[in-house]
Write a structure and sequence with these properties.
114 residues; 4 helices; alpha+beta; 2 strands; single chain
Length: 114
Amino acid sequence: MSTSHAPSHDPRWRRLPEERPQQILDAALSVFAEHGIDAAKLEDIAARAGVSKGTIYLYFPSKEELFREVLISAGQASGRRLRLLEVRGQAFDHPSLLAMPETKYLKCFVLEAA
């Protein structure tokens, strides 16, 4: 007599929606570390997290917001709480030359350990 048993767990590709933000944050941390915020692509982050690019936008409205959350998450993982004080970028009156990418300033997030 044969009986069929239901699988004891969901397939790997079927993940709980509440796990997705952390999966995206983990993937984003890796991609930002490898490429920097400017060169990092949401497509690469989505592929590494195993989600679509559109899924990222369900949880994070922009790449900048995702980067901010990565910083806060990293602070929490180290046992620290971080508070965003300021976001700085290139001054509007500073020229950025297309032929010289080094003239483009990196965005700077000023954080304080709380």
